[in-house]
Amino acid sequence: MSRLLDVNAIESGYGRSRVLFGVTLHVDDGESVALVGRNGMGKTTTIRTILGLCRATAGRVTFAGDDVTHRAPYRIARHGIGIVPEGRQVFPALTVRENLIATAANYGGAASPWTVRDVFDLFPRLAERAAALGIQLSGGEQQMLAIGRALMLNPRLMILDEATEGLAPIVRDEIWSVLRRLRERGQSVLVVDKHLPALAKLCDRAIVLEKGRTVWTGAPAVLAADTGLHDRYLSV
Fold first, then answer.
1. Of 49, 135, 174, 201, which is the most exposed, with the fewest CB atoms less than 10 Å away?
2. Is residue 115 part of a domain?
3. What is the CATH number of the domain that holds 56?
4. Does residue 135 lie in a domain region?
5. Residue 14, domain extent
6. Using an 8 Å Cβ cutoff, are 44 and 201 in contact?
7. pLDDT tens digit string along 27-68?
8. How does 50-60 read in b/e, with b if 16+ C-beta sit within 10 Å?
9. In a domain, 2, yes or no
10. What is the dihedral of CA 77, 68, 37, 2, to 10 degrees?
11. Half-sphere exposure of 159 toward its Cβ, with a 13 Å CA cutoff?
């Protein structure tokens, strides 16, 4: 597989407060990678730095062979990165259909780009709620819509920050099932989540952050099964 995203020893933070201390990770084309760690260890800051929303003060971010470290967020998005942000952030005053259409593009250059009908086939519940406003949706429906909206960008890489946080178990299972289907279609994914058993079924690799540093990389099934590793890096 070819290298799609390459994050090399990035440092970043907020004002004078440094959060990342040389984080390194990569995602190959067609690969699914989990980014895990306790709360406050730098996962969201890593994502924000990849997207250009936080300024990297050291290191480099390369996407599809291009150095995007200091590019504007909109230019990075146009390289083919879609984000499902923590908190979903759907447009509350737009309908489900309007949310999907509002930012639709083909940044990844897909030969068969995603359509609203494709998203509705993936999430039948959204088809039923097509005329509902974003503010009228349940948390699970909003997460489905956030994923659908990211897919409408036709991204080469989709990033999900807290993919199933706060969702009911039945909705969580549906989200994981959809992500596995996307993986089978060759969609590259970088996902932040806490549910290791589900990540083990979805992801090729897991990367653990602790205090803003990359401290472990390996198979998520190993991380899920090894109580010593789990207690050291993930238990609270």
1. 135
2. no
3. 3.40.50.300
4. no
5. 1-79+190-236
6. no
7. 999 999 999 999 999 999 999 999 999 999 999 999 999 999
8. bbbbbebeebe
9. yes
10. 90
11. 23
